[in-house]
Amino acid sequence: MFARFRDSLARFMMGRYGMDTLNRVLFALSMVLYFINLLAGSVTLVILEMVMLWCMFFRFLSRNTYKRSMENRKFMELFGRVKQWILLQKNKIKYRKTHVYRACPSCKMVLRLPRKAGEHEVKCPRCAARFRVKV
Ligand SMILES: [Zn+2]
């Protein structure tokens, strides 16, 4: 009985996209909205939640696996940038007593510099530009 169900499920899912990180995030966000909405009771949140779940199921059952994996890749790039930004904020707090953070004026890379009072010349490790920093 269970084996037959499993086999027919496997046949149904053949060639379909299935689960990926974007789908997991969509599902998690819709669950978060569901629990927020238990307190808020907003129709807009219900609609948003339904749209997220619909997107998740659409992507899960889609046969256009190339398009779905490209969507996931774009999402992962964006997610990676957000994760990097959060890590930078965490490190700014963690090292606030010993280091300062300054962006390179030419390539915009954020550099961690030792917190030494005075004006210093800094050479960017990425683009080799030299600039002065006041601490
Ligand atoms: Zn630079």
Described by the principal axes of the CA atoms, the overall outline is elongated
Query: Low-confidence parts lasting 5 or more residues at pLDDT below 50?
Result: none
Structural class: alpha+beta
User: In the residues, how many domains can be counted?
Assistant: 2
Question: How confident overall, as mean pLDDT?
Answer: 94
Strand content: 5-15%
Biggest pleated sheet: 2 strands, antiparallel
Helix content: 55-70%
How many helices does DSSP assign? 4
Radius of gyration equals 24 Å
Descriptors for this entry?
4 helices; single chain; 2 domains; 135 residues; 4 strands; binds zinc ion; two-stranded antiparallel sheet; elongated; 15% strand; alpha+beta
Write up what this structure looks like.
- Helix content is 60%, strand content 15%.
- With 135 residues, the chain is an alpha+beta fold.
- The strands form 2 sheets. A two-stranded antiparallel ribbon has the order 1-2.
- The radius of gyration is 24 Å and the shape is elongated.
- Bound molecules: zinc ion.
- Zinc ion binds at residues 104, 106-107, 109, 124, 126-127, 129.
Summarize the structure.
The chain has 135 residues and is α+β, with helices and mostly antiparallel strands. It contains 4 helices and 4 strands; from the N terminus they run ααααββββ. The structure holds zinc ion.
